[in-house]
């Protein structure tokens, strides 16, 4: 949970992600931009950070990160098997990647870090090297935190959006989009906007599933039979909810000014607008965890790892957002 607003939050823990990807380049690049503005520390093998990107300052406890950041990238060492091999994941390093995530969760759960920012993992590499059986990062974090249900939010300065259904075929969305699922997604989002984004009365916009939000049943009945009854019930409890809205008219500037967060019905309906508006600075935020978690909204980029061309913009924004959510900045 976020600390009291009058307390100085602890630093942000950053799990290293896949060593063969761009994670070891993103952390020092973010430090060069942020310096001590946002105190954070990397959990990983110091030997994996490119020598020419930033000086390394090894720390033994998170509370030393802010002072260490004046001189270099603070790293809480977690030694892994073997050298970094950009572009080629090493099976022997998979357990270390998982251990970095576990350590980060432990540190935020015990209050030694104020938030967790996770750098991208390579799920297949973890499955091959360590039997990683979770669909992704988010599900693993929910398991570690013993959270009943979590929700993915994509956030930038221009838009916050939550997909009700995520990584399933489009043909499966109508069956997956139940009233119970939609209600849970909205409730978790509403609670997080209050607790973690400090918006006491969040304005929520909900998209329809079909073109023109079904056009009164002419282009589908999900709006009438599933979505509207849920929204009416939650509005009856006092939530400020608009919808179901036609998705093709709810993401332009004037429309976005009327809500704090949008709920979309499926993956692309949510991600296309935010990636169009702010491709390099979108942040993945996990709602429903008992701590703050952000992550850059991209993958390991094995194809460019080791070339020094990785764009740290999303990582920088993810760190700044985590710091703001933790109460470290207005």
TrEMBL record:
Cofactor: Zn(2+); Mg(2+); Co(2+)
One GO term of the biological process aspect: pyridoxine biosynthetic process
Enzyme class: oxidoreductase
Superkingdom, natural source: Bacteria
Pathway assigned to this chain's UniProt record: Cofactor biosynthesis; pyridoxine 5'-phosphate biosynthesis; pyridoxine 5'-phosphate from D-erythrose 4-phosphate: step 4/5
Binding positions for substrate per the UniProt entry: 137-138, 275, 284, 293
Keywords for this protein: Cobalt, Cytoplasm, Magnesium, Metal-binding, NAD, NADP, Oxidoreductase, Pyridoxine biosynthesis, Zinc
GO cellular component terms attached to this protein's record: cytoplasm
Record-listed a divalent metal cation binding positions: 167, 212, 267
Keyword presence, Signal: no
Further remarks about this protein from its record: The active site is located at the dimer interface.
Record family assignment: Belongs to the PdxA family.
Subunit structure: Homodimer.
NCBIfam families: pdxA (TIGR00557), PRK05312.1 (NF003699)
Full protein name: 4-hydroxythreonine-4-phosphate dehydrogenase
Organism: Roseivivax lentus
């Amino acid at each position: 949970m976020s600390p009291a607003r009058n307390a100085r939050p602890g630093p942000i823990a950053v799990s290293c992600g896949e060593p063969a990807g761009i994670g070891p380049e993103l952390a020092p690049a973010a430090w060069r931009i942020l310096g001590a503005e946002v105190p954070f520390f990397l959990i990983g093998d110091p030997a994996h950070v490119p020598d020419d990107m930033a000086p390394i300052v090894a720390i033994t406890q998170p509370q030393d990160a802010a002072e260490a950041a004046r001189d270099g990238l603070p790293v809480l060492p977690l030694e892994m098997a073997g050298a970094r091999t950009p572009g080629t994941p090493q099976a022997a390093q998979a357990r270390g990647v998982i251990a970095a995530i576990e350590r980060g969760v432990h540190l935020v759960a015990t209050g030694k870090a104020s938030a967790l920012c996770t750098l991208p993992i390579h799920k297949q590499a973890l499955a091959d090297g360590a039997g990683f059986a979770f669909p992704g990062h988010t599900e693993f974090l929910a398991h570690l935190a013993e959270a009943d249900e979590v929700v993915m939010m994509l956030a930038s300065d221009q838009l916050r959006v939550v997909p009700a259904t995520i990584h399933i075929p489009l043909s499966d969305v109508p069956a997956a989009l139940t009233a119970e699922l939609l209600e849970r997604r909205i409730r978790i989002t509403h609670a997080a906007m209050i607790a973690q984004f400090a918006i006491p009365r969040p304005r929520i916009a909900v998209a329809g599933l079909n073109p023109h939000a079904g056009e009164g049943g002419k282009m589908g009945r999900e709006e009438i039979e599933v979505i509207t009854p849920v929204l009416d019930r939650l509005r009856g409890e006092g939530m400020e909810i608009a919808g179901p809205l036609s998705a093709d008219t709810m993401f332009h500037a004037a429309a976005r000014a009327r809500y704090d967060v949008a709920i979309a019905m499926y993956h692309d309906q949510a991600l296309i607008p935010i990636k169009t508006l702010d491709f390099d600075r979108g942040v993945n935020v996990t709602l429903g965890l008992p701590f703050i978690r952000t992550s850059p909204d991209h993958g390991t980029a094995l194809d460019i790892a080791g070339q020094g061309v990785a764009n740290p913009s999303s990582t920088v924004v993810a760190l700044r957002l985590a710091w703001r959510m933790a109460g470290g900045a207005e």
